Amino acid sequence: MINKSRKGMNLPKSVKIFDTTLRDGEQTPSVALTVGEKVTIARQLDKLGVDIIEAGFPISSKGEKKAVSKIAEEGLTSKVCGLSRVLTNDIDACLDCDVDMVHTFVSTSDIQLEHTLKKSKEEVLQMAVNAVSYIKDHGVECLFSAMDATRTDVDYLIKIYKAVEEAGADIINIPDTVGVMIPPAMRLLTSEVYNAVKIPIDVHCHNDFGLAVANSLAAVEAGASEVQCTINGLGERAGNADLEEIVMSLTSIYGVKTNIKTQYLFETSKLVERLTGVKMPPNFPIVGENAFSHESGIHTHGVISKAETFEPGLMTPEMVGHKRRIVSGKHAGTHGVLAMLEEMGVKVNEEMLREITMRVKDLGDKGKRVTDADLKAIAEAVMGEVEKEKKIVDLKELAVMTGNMVLPTASVKLRFKDKELVGADIGVGPVDAALNAVRRVVKGVEDIKLTEYNLEAITGGSDALAEVLVKLEDSKGNVVTGRAAREDIVMASVEAMISGINRIFLLREK
Ligand code: KIV
Ligand code: ZN
To answer: Which residue's alpha carbon is at the smallest distance from atom 5 of ligand 1?
Structure first.
């Protein structure tokens, strides 16, 4: 079907990637990068193979000008570009930074001419022509953008593009500044511009309706040979077209070449995430944590025997520098659990595997994501290593006092290997006091933190069976869960904690 649809397209053989992470991307609310951070990202973009790095808007601040200069000084393979309005001072600021290219822009839509620029169409056209001539007179490449092109009268838009082409612009850009296009409209507009000018066409789409990538690709289908995009889709408001999605769609689906070394996409995304502080949702395509993770039994079974069964195939995790992960949770199946256990070097028989899978699903039903350490602990418990006689810690005695006259207090006696340990503590309630007492007693051996506590009544009534699930962490960062079910909430809590403590000690003994 894709091949059939290709017939009506005017696809270029290759597409240049114009990265604007350091300019439009830095306009993401709350993002502000230091000069050093911008240089670090520019080096990574160069390693990734982007054709052009828009390093910043030099007139906007001293720091910005310094960052653009520093990036231009780096001697990168990528061309370095600075942004300017169609004003001589702005262009001079870019030229001072010794950039390879100046990206000059001016509003062209009626709404922006009337409310922001307050200039006539003729004045704007003249300013654009003057700016382009001035840039070309200084011997650098010139990219011209008609800001808000997609809300501009098409005849006027074409008139201004033809005028800047005549003035020497090397390439023109069609910005969908407020992200209002849909793919068929972007295709139509791009073809009209394509038929009117001879110089290459670039696109810059914003993601207000989540269509930035689709609209950019539609422009490529109509002949655009350069796409402006950002790492992690950063940018004003809802951001710009995402570079990773554009590049992988072009490479894997359209069969159009780019110069991007796709194996560096994941590490580039992670670097930008860390330096900008903008966290990526796990379900983000290509570079999100879950992009190649499989949990459901049906999917993991398929992926383990042949990855393409539940992955696109045209794009593998290796191609983008990511990893395939099998995770366990309520949708886990025996194949996925077995694969994870094998990776940990744990050997189980069929009966054990069924029991382990059941317990993993059980935890998943409680909304828990089963960590590797949990899975190992579950497997060990099932394999009989947490049998009564093998318990490292065991509860011997527990006494709790509570009421309106005393602070809830608990005393506890534990067997630790062949010693008996005794201690007491207080808490905000009887459960808190009991758990504090257990932790205090064990603290002589290991400081164990309680990071999560979950209580659920399985049956109704005041004699309900209470199921307690705790998450514990030891000083080495091992995270395990412990669980127990009893009608007595205090006892269930203490037993859950002791089962978790046993798991930690067993893990550590290994
Ligand atoms: O969104 C936009 O129109 C821009 C221009 C400067 C190209 O960022
Ligand atoms: Zn923009």
So the answer is: 147
